[in-house]
Amino acid sequence: MAEIRTALWIAGRYLLARSHGYATFINWVSFVGLVLGVLILTVVLSIMNGFDREMTGRILSAVPHGFFQYDGDPPLAELQAIEGVSSVMRLFQGEAMATRYGGVAFIGLAAVDVADAHRLPRVLSGQALDNLVSTPDSLVLGAALARDLQLEGKVGDTVRLMIPVASAAGVRARIERFTLAGTFELRAQPDAALAIARREDIVQRGLADAGLDGWRLQLDDPLDAVRLAEQIGGVLGSGVAVRFWTDEYGELFRAVAIEKAIMFALLALIVAIASLNIVSGQAMLVNDKRGDIAMLATMGASRRLLVGVFFLQGFSVAALGVAVGLAFGIAVAANANAVVSFFEGLLGASVIEGTYFDRIHSHLVWPDILAIVGVALGLSLVAVLRPAFKAAAENPAEALHAS
To answer: 105 near 91, Cβ under 8 Å?
Structure first.
């Protein structure tokens, strides 16, 4: 214990002393590099997580988390008893071509039971929900789709859908008229390619065979789809195929995850460079303190004490840099939109203009924070060990003679 206190005292003296010249300068450059590296890494990953989370929430509020077809009535009670399954509701999915005033758009057509319409709050809400529930043969369109068809703000107008249906002669186009009940805006891809109708109207018009008429699974956390797939499949039986959202959008989110991993690796190089600077600073300090090392050795200082002195001195610089960088990084990430707005005001340009987003989204994920701290401290640990062991390996006689 006394040896540890001695090492801490000597390391503190070396750390706070101003007489080490260039070695001290290099150490503080390393400190600033670590602060900047950890700060940038924290902010960039948090903003990537924020946009990823926002886009996931928007898209998956309109896309079924799971979809299956079942002959007869499925075991609803058993499905809803699975932890993580939020609800199970009827859903029709098909494709159609919307036309109006010469405008044409290929769309995905979804139809829900009137009783279940409120279960899609981000898509169906307010006046659009009320009109859809109360008005037969009504339809809710994505905002971008309504603009393309010149239907923006024209609730009550007629929308023509051309739906492919099977017949004895093959597939033929059938034109159906619906009334615009309202629009929804997620600021994502479904805005331009999705229409929602009442399933009762689809069945009444004999269009249930024009698409897939089945059941929609809603999960508490869409990212649990892979984990819950086996349980859901076990309840439904091996003869029922469940299509999860990952089958359609999985590649997109895997690409985002790969991009995030590559960005982490590239930004970690900033931390690595700062850690290499610590090696230079510590090597200079060891060379400058060869006389002190020799005197301590001749006075009986153990190899462990000498290693501890220079390890604690170097690692304290690294740990302080990581802590300060993390504190600033979390503060900036938590106020990312305000910080970006400030710089946008100075530059007179917007970084999100022309996108689906109206603000900078940021989300701090603790596993990412722990990974940043682990990488930064791990690299710093490796950086300070070599000079520390070099100090302990000094020959006292040669060092005193050179002094």
So the answer is: no
DSSP string, 173-231: EEEEEEEEEEEE--SSGGGGTEEEEEHHHHHHTT-GGGEEEEEEEEESSGGGHHHHHHH
CB count within 10 Å of CB 56 equals: 18
pTM (2 decimals)?
A: 0.73
Pull the structure tokens for residue 345. 């005001």
The structure tokens listed for 322 are 């990581």
Residue 100's alpha-carbon distances to 4, 141, 147, 164, 233, in angstroms, are 81, 13, 11, 18, 42
- Burial of 238: CB neighbours in 10 Å, binned 0-12, 13-18, 19+: exposed
Q: What is the pLDDT of residues 7-64, one digit of tens each?
A: 555 555 555 555 555 666 777 777 888 888 899 989 989 988 888 888 778 888 888 9
- CA dist 285 and 384 (Å) reads 11
The DSSP output letter for 287 is H
Summarised one tens digit per residue, pLDDT across range 248-295 is: 887 877 888 888 888 888 888 888 887 777 776 666 665 665 555 555
b/e map 111-147, b = 16+ CB within 10 Å: bbeeebbeebeebbeeebbebbeebebbbbbbbbbbb
Helix axes 22-62, 245-288, angle to 10 degrees: 170
